[in-house]
Amino acid sequence: MAAKPIVLVHGYSSGAPAFDAWRSALISRGFDPGLLHACSYRSLTNEVTIRDIAEGFDRALGIQAGLDEDQPFDAMVHSTGMLVLRAWLSAYPKRRSRLKHLIALAPATFGSPLAHKGRSWMGAMFKGNRQPGPDFLEAGDRILSGLELGSRFTWDLAHEDVVGPWVFVFCGTESYRGLRRLAHEPGTDGAVRWAGCALNTRKIILDLTEDPARKASARRISIASWKNIDAPLVPVEGKNHSTILSDPGDHLVDLVAGALEVEDAGSYERWQAQARPAKPDATEPWQQFVIRALDERGDPIPDFNVQLFTRRAGGRESTVQPFDIDVHAYREDPSLRCFHVNLAKIGADKLENLWIRVMASSGSQLVGYHGYGSESPEPAADSRDGVWDAELDISSLADDRGVRFFFPFTTTLVELRLNREPLPVSGRNQVCFF
Question: CA of 426: how far to CAs of 177, 182, 288, 360, 421, in Å?
Fold first, then answer.
């Protein structure tokens, strides 16, 4: 039986007792109760950030859990606990060697569709702090900002973190019941999206700032390798965001106990074969895209939109629906947009000759966005808000590396780069002149 400490990290608006059922289940499988450490952290205070909690977690590991500075440990996280642990890991590289196994239960790896609702007055009434004092009815605004879909925090964290070597991700396939079901959206366990759980993600850069006709080395499309290890989502039938923690069931506990015994590639592959669902197609294949639009200086482009379409012989177009129907713009920086797509409904496996159309607006006739690859090099002269659009063939994503734009149960990061220039782009401009 594993002799390493196991640290348990709960989710938003919860506490250490949330892991009571798991503590009992692990002890019944022979795990030493003295090695199970469930932490608590404050999430209903508006001034505290997820990175603040991560640093508090580091201090608590040594002072209260009794772990030595370099002592290895395993971790089990639920929901927001995933962000806390990853923020802790990414702060200092030496920390990464300490974590040996990561069990992620319904992790909010890329946030939650409920987070922006929790920042509202209604969210404070239902989830807000009930303890008398200056934090009364606070709902943890800065934590919820990090949890919001498409947040700058999760975008940056995806670039920073490297988690390994052994990661195991589980999420329920059912929604909440009762009144909570009213907030349910498809492709979730009631609080987190299946496509937003896994750590393995890929970044694609669509760069329209360079003219490939003038610069031979200009690459319009750049594709990064997969970030982190390949740890596919394991769906857990009959569980939702709450019951996966409070009532895990023997099968899930057995899988977790086996995961904590994995020590090499061979045992990891055998574990994955055991965890593979009996009905692999029972869960609809959803994917998340977090798209960020920047100009050539790295400044955000807050007003933009993207559409996917296919182009056939003779130039005929067919819009890919419903790619851009479920879109959330990050409240604090709308240059970040989160798209949630049911790949089965758009027929992703049959799409050919795929193109992307980018539309951007400066809101002014004085400046505008533009890029290479459009029939219109700049916004129209009569455009009052500098609206401009461009098209880019992304069929080439299916290159010799087998890259696919659509990949179920993952989050794909897409960075759009455009130029921002005084108008008109050529000749005498209207911003500065002699």
Answer: 60, 53, 38, 19, 10
pLDDT tens-digit readout, 199-211: 989 999 999 887 7
Instruction: Give the span between the Cα atoms of 35 and 376, in whole angstroms.
Output: 64
**Strand locations in 173-322 (E):** 202-207, 221-223, 233-236, 286-295, 304-311, 317-319
Q: How far is CA 400 from CA 44, 218, 227, 406, in A?
A: 49, 19, 19, 16
Note whether 355 and 389 are same-domain residues.
yes
Rounded-to-integer distance, Cα 138 and Cα 118, Å? 10
C-alpha span between 343 and 357 (Å, rounded): 19
Distance CA 28, CA 35 (A): 14
pLDDT tens digits along 382-427: 666 668 888 888 886 655 455 688 999 999 999 999 999 898 888 8
The sign of the dihedral angle between the CA atoms of 339, 340, 346, 350 is positive
For position 321, which CATH number holds? 2.60.40
Average pLDDT, the chain: 87
The mean-pLDDT minimum among 3-7, 137-141, 393-397 falls in 137-141
Q: Is the domain of 36 the same as that of 158?
A: yes
Tally of domains within the chain: 2
